[in-house]
Amino acid sequence: MADNEKEKKAQKQEKPRFTTVDAAILDLCNNVEIPEITCWDRTKKQSPRCSFGEKGICCRICSMGPCRVDESREKLKYGVCGVDSNTVAARNFIRMIAGGAAAHSDHARAGAETFLAAAKGEAPGYAIKDEQKLLQLAMDFDVSVGDRSVQDIAIEVGEKGMGIFGEQFGPIPLTKRAPLKRQKLWAEQGMLPRGVDREIVEIMHRTHIGVDMDPVNLMQQGSRAAIADGWGGSMLATELQDIMFGTPVPILGRSNLGVLEKEQVNIVIHGHEPSLSEMIVAVVQDPEMIERAKQKGAQGINLAGICCTANEILMRHGVPLAGNFLQQEMAIITGAVDAMVVDVQCLMGSLPRVAECFHTKVITTNYRAKIPGATHIQFEEHDAVETAKKIVRAAIDNFPNRKEVYIPDVECDLIGGFSHETINYLLGGMFRASYKPLNDNIINGRILGVAGVVGCNNVKCEHDAGHIDLVKELIANNVLVLQTGCSAVACAKAGLMLPEAAAKYAGPGLAEVCETVGIPPVLHMGSCVDNSRILMAATAMVKQGGLGDDISGLPVAGAAPEWMSEKAISIGHYFVASGVYTVFGTTWPTTGASELTDLLFNGYEEITGGKWDFALESNVQAQKMIDHIKKKREALGIEKARKRILYDMAMRRELDAG
Ligand code: SF4
Ligand code: MSK
User: Which residue(s) pair with 556 in the sheet?
Assistant: First the structure.
């Protein structure tokens, strides 16, 4: 065997068990004997994977299959029913959009139910916290305001909100928030959405055997459903949550497993819906609960979060982030988590099995998401405080059952809470809130552009590295970064969400702006559904003026370097359908279908002004995003940084004479 081959083989064998750059996980695995129970262990056992599945060309829609289609092999060109790889991959792709849009929208529906119950006074503990936002939403829904009471308005807004999901004819109201040119384009392209329920049902119908076989036509429906998610379900979830729980403002937080407390009862909240976690935040401060914890030998109660429930309660209360998606098992492995309380989405089925090796109580709380082996305590919004108390009591009572505890001494501060409204105030000031300073700094070249870097962790790649490397490269090139989801948690842990990160990592122009305004170069905008905040920020930039008349003209780009969920595909596609260049990393689900991939990577630019792209390496993703931003700057005529020129009298006279 040649020397370099031997070297390669040795390197392959030496691949660490936990591929991560997270210092807390690395510390944990050096100090705790971890049984083979983690997602890293399972992913090894799943290899090698079916290449047809990876390329999006495995079809199991009917029982004549499963069919593996392969355009490069004559005998596998068509499935039994006669469809080719482009049809199969397009059907699979838009079914992913349907799954993602359904998750966001069902989250929104649960929020709307709680909102309506709260408005009617049937959900004690909940209130209307942001009246201004309620009035704004009332206007969007054509609800008359006049001299009606807040409660009356809220009830009608709640009822209309519930009605949006099943809206049969459309367009759904929040699409009217988009720039006019975008709305016109959607109408021309047949993409203006009806209610998301209808759009998802239509995807399932069209992708049934023997229905829609045209990839372009399938993608049009996929686009309509994705828009119904971004400008419907997701946006409604964000709006109603802000009205009920408060619109986030900048807040200090902490991140990583070091936020767990050895001497306190640790409750980790995990999932996506904030309705229950908001109540838990209140209940853990109850003196009766703190006293109970002390009676069990703890010094108090410590609350922390994983995934997007974490992001929700960080944004509004500063509750620390214990970690992102790939840290859920690791949190239990510290031995310090007395209860992991989960709601919906991104939960690993292994949690109760991992918990068995330690002492953690895994508590499911939503009838939609039960896990064999977990304890179920159903969350009732009509009796939310009592449900929260029951859960907190269960956690406290589990404290004496702890075995070995090892909490990595790794944590990092961050500033969260950058809602679209907050950015508006911070940039323009309370009395002249506007995006003008941002647009001006983009036009004068201090800021090259804006990037949304969002999405999951994926165990197929090095945990967190994709997010951190990409974001560092973007800010070094003066690109302001907006973040949500597990990507935001990754960058928070890396210290990128602190104002001092501007001087350390950002290019000189971006650093100057951040230092003047007092913001970090990377802004935490919330959870997965809060990607709608990024849509609103982009729309505000268009409406402010000076950067064209549509989102597709802005010097902006999006990325999800470590994506894994169907929600990420729905989010990515509503950004593409809204005119944004969007690059994904790790893996791409249509590589076995050349025409469909070409449509998504090239053709879509003609259709929506946005397009998909894929690159494995962070530096390539960054370069592609920067190239796109520069292309847009050139089209706007602002490709060169404009220096501020101070005119002297002679120059002024010359101007006047001209
Ligand atoms: Fe095969 Fe067609 Fe059935 Fe898919 S729908 S499994 S390609 S026969
Ligand atoms: S939690 S969807 S792993 S971002 Fe929103 Fe993280 Fe992705 Fe779940």
Answer: 450
Determine the atom of ligand 1 nearest the C-alpha atom of 80. 8
User: Which residue, among 193, 194, 195, has the nearest Cα to 182 in the 3D structure?
Assistant: 193
pLDDT surpasses 80 at 294 = yes
Tokens of 122: 């049937």
Q: What is the pLDDT averaged over residues 155-167? A: 97
What DSSP element (H or E) covers 375? Answer: strand 375-376
> What's phi and psi for 589, nearest 5 deg?
-85, 15
- Asked whether 308 lines ligand 2 (CB < 6 A), one says yes
Pocket test for ligand 2, best of 567, 569, 570 (most atoms within 8 A of CB): 567
Backbone φ, ψ for residue 174 (5° rounding)? -70, -15
Sequence length of the chain is: 658
Number of H helices, E strands in the chain: 29, 16
Residue in this structure with the two tokens 């009332």, named with its chain if needed = 138
Q: Which ligand is nearest to the CA of 63?
A: 1
C-alpha 64 – ligand 2 centre gap (Å): 35
Contact 632, 555 (CB under 8 A): yes
In ligand 2, the atom with minimum distance to the C-alpha of 272 is 5
Surface-to-core class of residue 189, CB atoms within 10 Å of its CB (0-12 exposed, 13-18 middle, 19+ buried): middle
* Cα radius of gyration (the chain): 25
Cα–Cα dist 154/148, whole Å: 10
Axis crossing angle, helix 531-544 with helix 420-428, rounded to the nearest 10 = 40
Q: How confident is the model at residue 645 (pLDDT cuts 50, 70, 90)?
A: very low
Ligand having the closest approach to the CA of 59: 1
In this prediction, residue 640 carries a pLDDT of 79
The CB-side HSE value for 425 (13 A sphere, CA atoms) comes to: 11
Q: 623: closest CA among 557, 524, 532, 576?
A: 557
Q: Which domains, and CATH codes, for the chain?
A: 85-245 (1.20.1270.30), 257-401 (3.40.50.2030)
d(CA 322, ligand 2 centre) in Å = 14
Question: What integer is the mean pLDDT of 16-29?
Answer: 96
Residue 7: the pLDDT is 59
Q: Is the CB of residue 325 below 6 angstroms from any atom belonging to ligand 2?
A: yes
DSSP assignment of 152-200? HHHHHHHHHHHHHTT-SS---GGGGGS-HHHHHHHHHTT-----HHHHH
pLDDT surpassing 80 at residue 314: yes
Please tell me the predicted confidence (pLDDT) of residue 656.
45
Segment 121-150 shows an average pLDDT of 96
What is the rounded CA–CA span in Å between residue 297 and residue 306? 25
* Ligand 1 mean position, distance from CA 106 (Å): 29
Please tell me the number of Cα atoms within 13 Å of 135 on its side-chain side: 9
Centre of ligand 1 from the C-alpha of residue 314, in Å: 46
User: Ligand 1 centre from 612 Cα, in Å?
Assistant: 27
How would you classify the pairing of strands 58-59 and 67-68?
Answer: antiparallel
